Amino acid sequence: MKEGFLIGGGLIVAGLMLELSVGPVVWDAFAWPLNGIVLAGFFVMLTTMAYLRNKVYAFKWMTTYQAAIPAMVYAVVLTIIMGLTRQQVNGTWIYNMLSFWPFVLIYLYITVILGLTIHSRLRRIFRGEGLLKRDVPFMLNHLGLFLALTTATLGCADMQRVKMICGVGEPEWRVLEQGGAIKEMPIAIELKKFTMETYDDGSPKRYASDIQILTKSGKNIETVVEVNKPYEIDGWKIYQYGYDTQMGAQSQITILELVRDPWLPWVYAGFYMMLAAAAFITLEVLCRRLKTATRKELEWYIFFAVCAALFAYFFFDSYNTKTLVPALQSPWFAPHVFVYIFAYCLLGIAVVIAWWKKVDDLVYISFAFLTIGMLFGALWAKEAWGHYWSWDPKETWAAITWIAYLIYIHYRRLPQQRSRLAFWMLIGSFTLLQMCWWGINYLPSAQSSSVHVYSTD
């Protein structure tokens, strides 16, 4: 894997030189139609590389584990730096990692590896050399991740997020863009009534806005918008964002966020493919173990699964669900938390068992649940806040943990490997998981900047 680490190091150096010479990546420049042209060119490049793989050693080598593992190691290191530093919209270098050239180049390299690997597996399938029960989850997982990465990245410049402050009885069609500019919209919104329910301590339990929407096309709609329940019209989603906190329940204004994301269906397609892959992996491993395991092994599997499920249940039950903030009052809350904690428990059990025997199948199932929990969180975030992934500190460490376990899984597929190193990789991944679970509550980078740091007392 020396070549992989050398290439990754070369990309880091190249990224630093680009950062010094041309400045950070300007993602706003990749708006339509430029992002469509770039995506088409990227596909052409990948196709050309794939067809030349037998003539160019580097292209064939990029479909191997020896290429993927070092690339993911660099991704984890850079993303850890991102998770430890306070990210700023106007920051530079490591304080705005999404525009930091080394970070961008490493993830671009991973996407190229993904694309070539997908093409290589497709060729095997078409030649009849594949195995259906392995190829289906493989293609769903890799293709789904590739689709989500490319469309989310190139589509970010086309996403519009604006805020509208509406008063009672006063139609409003002007919005405030993220840069502070005022813009007129093709729709007008009038606040009819603002409603707030509070807990005994006065904290908000629920707040919503009865609004009337008028469009240039002649639509006249009255509806209610509240946290976790946005309203969609003419390609825009309207979210309940805020209100006059000094007036509280007597607020005469409401703050709405309007979001337009034309690339969202493609991103969601990638998410759903990864969810399907996680389900396939779980079923495939379970069916295989049920056929080969002894009675005693099955009893232990059931015992561990029950313990993990009970821990996840009691952890969720420890939340004071009667006093949840509005953002947590979502149908996604229970499955997101339960599945994630269930995965955490299984991964903890895997670390303990790994002292005596291989735990690859347990890690596969745990990783599948980890993927499901992460994607449930992304789908929930879109309904609650208007974005499925914002690199919030919690999301950043979730990505770090997810990639770390991917490194372990890929390493275990190598024909030659060191069991001691694999064990320490598992320990390291579980340590990163602890940072994702509760460690971020103590990180300066997460304080006042993470929507995942709540008080539910």
From TrEMBL:
**What coarse category fits the chief subcellular location reported for this protein?**
membrane
Which key words are in the record? Cytochrome c-type biogenesis, Membrane, Transmembrane, Transmembrane helix
Query: Quick one: a GO biological-process term for this protein?
Result: cytochrome complex assembly
Q: What cellular component terms from Gene Ontology apply here?
A: plasma membrane
Compartment annotation: Membrane
- Cite a single GO MF annotation: heme binding
Domain Cytochrome c assembly protein stretches: 273-443
Give the residue spans that cross the bilayer: 5-26, 32-52, 64-85, 97-118, 266-286, 298-316, 336-355, 362-381, 396-414, 421-440
Annotated membrane topology: Multi-pass membrane protein
Domain ResB-like span(s) in chain numbering:
139-246
Q: Does the keyword Transmembrane helix apply?
A: yes
Identify the InterPro entries for this entry.
Cyt_c_assembly, Cyt_c_biogenesis_CcsA/CcmC, ResB-like_domain
Q: Does the keyword Transmembrane apply?
A: yes
The cross-references to PANTHER family, in alphabetical order and at most eight, read: CYTOCHROME B_B6 PROTEIN-RELATED, HEME EXPORTER PROTEIN C
* UniProt-recorded name of the protein: ResB-like family protein
Q: Which organism is it from?
A: Xylanibacter ruminicola
